[in-house]
Amino acid sequence: MSATASAAAPDLPAGTDEHLLEVRELVVNFPIRTGGVFRRVVGHVQAVSGVDLHVDEGETLGLVGESGCGKSTTGRAILQLHTPTSGSVRFDGNELTALPHKHMQEVRRDLQIVFQDPYASLNPKMPVNDIVAEPLKVHRRYSDDSPARVAELLRLVGLNPEHGNRYPHEFSGGQRQRVGIARALALRPRMLVLDEPVSALDVSVQAGIVNLLEDLQDELGLGYIFIAHDLSVVRHISDRIAVMYLGKIVETGTRHDVYNRSAHPYTQALLSAAPAANPKAERQRERIIVTGDVPSPINPPSGCRFRTRCWKAQDICATEEPALVDRGHGHPVACHFAGYRGSRSAR
Amino acid sequence: MMASLTPQPHIATGLTDVAQPSREEILRVNDLTVSFPTDDGLVRAVRGMSYVLHEREVLGIVGESGSGKSVSSMAIMGLLPKSARITGEIFYRGDDILTMRAQQRRSLRGRKIAMVFQDPMTALNPVYTVGDQLAEAVLAHELIPRKHALARAEEMFALVGIPQPRQRLNSYPHEFSGGMRQRAMIAMAVINNPDVIIADEPTTALDVTVQAQILEKLLEVKDAVNAAIILITHDLGVIAGTAHRVLVMYAGKPVEVTDTDGLFERPRMPYTAGLLGSIPALESDVDDRLRPIKGAPPSLIHLPSGCPFSPRCPLATDVCRTDEPDLLGTDAYDHLAACHHWPKLARADDPTMYFRAESEIVR
Questions:
Q1: Residue B329: phi, psi to the nearest 5?
Q2: A56-59, long-range: CB < 8 A, 24+ apart
Q3: Is there a contact between A337 and A320 (Cβ–Cβ < 8 Å)?
Q4: Of A226, A231, B28, B299, which has the most beta carbons under 10 Å away?
């Protein structure tokens, strides 16, 4: 692996202080075409507009935001499942955006994804053993020892290896998600992109998957990008968190920074809107209601993209886009009027 | 509102700001059972459900998928398919809905008992304007000119916070965003001044910021039309902030019924404790491990003998596998739970502790 990697990018020394994954200025635009013969491009959906992030080994980065904010597109663009329009994705010293397909396949051994919907992401015509073994076959790693490896993987994710010849429909939602995780682990990756891995599951089952992911991280030293809209799960599992709104990261920092010392009005509104399972606290706290809906990513607002729903918005917000920098809050915030709200930190 | 120097966000109306429930009963469900015959056997979706809904009360019904929470409310609305076998009684202000004549029942449905569905895109008709659909809800029950019905629809749009209500009446459902559609659904539900609004997972398909808007609206319209709400959800967080009382469903039966504070602070049924242990805390950085419930909910065709939760329950003993416990009073007379071993939970400092040992073993 390392031989081919350095061949693909010979000018890059294996830096020791580099992050395992480093994303810079990532932009993903999807063209909108007319229905006619020529399929002219009439506009772009600006799904991701300049995202910077990094993840180290054994670390979890939580990526939160509402639907349509570009969090899943970011995850897929990191794996080059969507081709980034511009920007750089460096994984383990390799620039993935410039990597030829053949080399990209080798990188994918180290960088795997778990999808949201365990019903749609497993082939219904394949028994679970074959599903978990498929990555080994695709990457020509399948040998006589592989059935034992598959059984080991199933045991690792908490499934009974004897059930390996069953088909996906014979498993419950939580068990199917475990199969998806086993498949992602087959090639011993170093990093997983987890795209809403627990959103489709009932709470009692969800907790089991979250625990499993934590155990696997401790055992295998994996780096995670955990994409979710459930703020309590993200808080539980993440070391650092990036909050996305309409294709941009508006606030990022450690879990403590983002949840206890949030300075961006959107983060504050998002956190206050999330219902907590504690009736007394729910009655006492203020719940900020932002008006309206998320604007269209085809034609996002000028300046700050949150300004159309923001109670702090002033003229400058429409003309000047706030940069994501530390404004004296100890972590980067993209807001001209960033500031803590007293009531939230008092909780 | 925006007079102060530092701009302030809009703060939501909470449960403490709305009218409190009275003791008057408007809906009483008695031993309701619903089953569906299938090729594989009889699916017993609801197996004996009883509860009371008071005036202006928000009753939360919580449970996982397949626990029978939606089916029981569909039975109240009379929306179940013909193949469903329904027994029991559902009294609306003293009249049994299940034995009523069809015509009488029709006059209740959508007028006195209204419903807000989970997915507004499939609940609204895509080929009619929302205004037409709201007017239809009025005209189905009253003989008034269409113009008056449309005027009422406009009023309701303003009530649920749809901007430019008059113009928006002419929109089609696809022109609305998810949150707006759900507002239109709420407007349609309250347009005939109902006594009971059944909201079946009204915010499950929505983002949290929009969810907060919709829950606030539900509480506000509840006061505007003086209705009670049955709020069906799987999200205990939604229950914590919006319900006065809660009913927890498991395998087609209520397993715990009590006021919201009691449920969260003093669960008396291991299933409830298990649910609470499964949710990560939103308020703290405490890195406690989650305490999931092992296994999966039972099949409604082949239910385990005894307590249906016993195969997953850390407290289960022999009696649990032979006798199904009834829903009875526990340490407080109005705190009902269906568990042989509730005193064990009452003695524990942290009722979720029974789930801990197992989550530690799972590897």
A1: -65, 145
A2: A56/A19, A56/A20, A56/A223, A57/A20, A57/A190, A57/A191, A57/A221, A57/A222, A57/A223, A58/A217, A58/A221, A58/A222, A58/A223, A59/A223, A59/A224, A59/A239, A59/A240
A3: no
A4: A226
The answer to whether A46 touches A108, Cβ cutoff 8 Å, is no
Ramachandran sector of residue A328 (left: φ over 0; alpha: ψ -120 to 50; beta: rest): left
Of A158, A273, A282, the CB nearest to B240: A282
Taking CA–CA distances from B245, the nearest residue in chain A reads: A279
Question: B231 - beta bridge partners?
Answer: B60, B199
The phi-psi region of residue A70 (left if phi > 0; otherwise alpha if psi is between -120 and 50; otherwise beta) is left
Which of B65, B213, B237 lies at the smallest CB-CB distance from A289? B213
pLDDT in tens, B209-226: 888 889 998 999 998 889
Strand ranges in B218-327 using DSSP code E only, listed in sequence order: 228-233, 245-250, 253-259
Position B17 scores a pLDDT of: 81
Confidence check: pLDDT of A342 > 90: no
CA distance, residue B44 to nearest chain A CA (Å) = 20
Exposure letters A109-126 (e unless 16+ CB within 10 A, then b): bbbbbbbbbbeebbeeee
Give pLDDT tens digits for A43-97.
Answer: 899 999 999 999 999 999 999 998 889 999 999 999 999 999 999 999 998 899 9
Residue A41: DSSP 8-state: E
Burial degree of A256 (CB within 10 A; 0-12, 13-18, 19+): middle
Spell out the domains of chain B, with CATH numbers in brackets: 24-243 (3.40.50.300), 258-280+295-361 (no CATH)
CATH 3.40.50.300 residue ranges for chain A: 2-238
What 3-state class would DSSP assign to A345?
A: helix
Phi, psi of A287 (to 5 degrees): -110, 115
Return d(Cα B202, Cα A173) in angstroms, integer: 23
Do residues B254 and B60 touch, judged by C-beta distance below 8 A? no
CA distance A1 to chain B (A): 30
Tokens of A228: 């979710």
- Best B1, B290, B362 member to test A by mutation, with max A CBs in 10 Å, is B290
**DSSP annotation of A201:** S
Give the homologous superfamily in CATH for domain A2-238: P-loop containing nucleotide triphosphate hydrolases (3.40.50.300)
Look at the block and give the residue holding tokens 């923001």. A310
Q: CB-CB: which of B12, B290, B297 is closest to A289?
A: B12
Give the chain A residue nearest B183 (alpha carbons). Answer: A292
